[in-house]
Design brief:
The complex is a heterodimer.
Chain A (H helix, E strand, L loop, with lengths): L1 H19 L7 H17 L1 H4 L16 H6 L1 H10 E8 L2 E8 L6 H15 L8 H9 L3
Antiparallel strand pairs in A: 1-2
Chain B lengths: L1 H22 L12 E8 L2 E8 L6 E4 L4 E3 L7 E7 L7 H14 L6 E7 L7 H11 L6 E5 L2 H10 L4 E3 L7 E3 L2 E5 L5 E6 L3 H16 L2
Parallel strand pairs in B: 5-6, 6-7
Antiparallel strand pairs in B: 1-2, 3-4, 3-7, 5-10, 8-9, 10-11
The chains are: A mainly alpha, B alpha+beta.
Chain lengths: 141, 215
């Protein structure tokens, strides 16, 4: 039983590492968050923002503006939870759309998604932790 | 041992299928989809039986430039039709992203057209459709975005064999299928592809090429 558990754990860590081997300096925790986040991203974000975060024309902005993701790190949790409306500048272009919020996502789910987005599309190497999500959500405007 | 010989068998089969589909390619024809009927005619005293295929009936809709367009605008063209709405949060963005790939690929080819029907007859006025088209990256008349009465839009969806419904329980308020429907030069349905499935979209690209060679 114990052995099985270790085997399962081993496999999932290996899997996480394999997926993230292109970014050697992220921790195992970050890699696991990102793997979980990838699945949730596919369900909740990919239709608009694309499989590679490429966006779609001027309808949906890309998630690949590393500077945007870094400067607005705290706001990201609010965007996911409450949505975003009005002009936003991404990669030097002004988008005027409306993103619906996804209020039913839990703090840990948001943490998974944002770890995926900020490490895969952005240049972060850190976990977007559950605590960070909770703190950010208290500060939403 | 048993397993590996099964694998060998599978491999050989796959190989045979691939070979076959390569050689058969030049004669490949797409099916004609929908119900069909037969009609008898007398020609020179002889009875001739014709097959009557399901066709998209005549239509008129208002497009993104507030101009009435009709089935006549698609005469002798191959076109891809679908159903969407501009603030659809679920399958539409993926479907339109894939349609855009086909639109980009056939840039400059005026034998291929695109027709997106909005099923949100309340919100998607021509000016909303225009802004949507521009933001998507559509800049010529090959791709039309149209609106009409609920009866006309939902009625024509049935003719394309696509399910659409106003449903407050569905994301965005409308339930619909994400099919890209391939229509030939004679307004007959030649294929329907799930616009959210990459493999099916690749198949559509291939079938469109086959259809364009058909005369």
């Amino acid at each position: 039983m114990r052995k099985n558990l270790i085997a399962v754990l081993g496999v999932s860590v290996t899997y996480a590492l394999a997926v993230y081997s292109c970014q050697p300096n992220v921790s195992i925790e970050t890699a696991q968050y990102a793997v979980n986040g990838q699945k949730l991203y596919g369900v909740h974000c990919q239709n608009c923002h694309g499989a590679k975060g490429e966006g779609l024309g001027m309808l949906y902005p890309p998630l690949t503006d590393t500077a945007y993701l870094a400067t607005n790190r705290a706001a990201l949790a609010c965007i996911v939870k409450n949505g975003l409306e009005g002009p936003v500048i991404v990669d030097g272009k002004t988008y005027e759309g409306a993103m619906p919020g996804i209020p039913q996502l839990s703090a840990v789910e948001i943490a998974y998604i944002l770890t995926y987005v900020t490490t895969r599309f952005g240049n972060s190497t850190n976990t977007y932790s559950q605590d960070e999500v909770k703190e950010a959500l208290e500060q939403c405007q | 041992m048993i397993k590996s010989s099964f694998h060998n068998y599978l491999g050989a089969l796959l190989f045979a299928v691939t070979l076959h589909s390569c050689t058969g390619d030049s004669q490949k024809k797409l099916p004609i989809i929908g119900e069909r009927a037969t009609e008898e005619r007398i020609v020179d005293g002889q009875t001739v039986v014709d097959t009557v295929y399901h066709q998209i009936p005549p239509f008129t809709f208002l497009n993104q430039d507030s101009v009435l367009i009709s089935d006549k605008d698609f005469d002798n063209k191959v076109y891809i039709a679908n159903f969407f709405f501009t603030h659809c949060p679920s399958i539409c963005p993926t479907m339109q992203r894939n349609m855009l790939k086909v639109y980009e690929k056939y840039r400059g080819n005026h034998d291929v057209a695109f027709l997106s029907h909005s099923i949100d007859f309340k919100y998607d006025s021509p000016s909303v459709l225009k802004s949507y088209a521009k933001k998507l990256g559509v800049d010529d008349e090959r791709w039309q975005f149209v609106t009409g009465t609920k009866k006309d839009i939902y009625g024509i969806a049935e003719k394309y064999l696509v399910y659409t419904k106003e449903d407050s329980a569905a994301p965005g308020g409308y339930d619909h299928q994400g099919y890209l429907v391939l229509i030939d030069q004679n307004k007959r349905i030649r294929g329907a592809y799930d616009g959210t499935n990459d493999e099916q979209v690749a198949q559509l690209m291939e079938d469109l090429g086959i259809l364009l060679k058909e005369q």
